[in-house]
Target: MADS-box domain-containing protein
Amino acid sequence: IPTRYGRANTFSSQRKHGLFKKAYELGVLCSVDVAVIIFEEKPGHNFKKLYQYCSSDVQEIVQRHIRHDGEKDTRGPADFAGG
Model:
């Protein structure tokens, strides 16, 4: 999305809702706990906002993540770039 306005508008009106809906569906269909945390900052502005979706208590899921000492399947941007 070429313009900053277009990216912000797409995020706020479409993508965020779709992402949270998919997280909800994943939690229900697979019987798993899901947490999605999004930090939005606008460069050049004093604007910071946190968005979150959690199938249960977000603090409890974050603590479980920190304490987890088993296997982890970690993904990053490179895993999804290019399609």
Notes: The chain has one domain: 4-67.
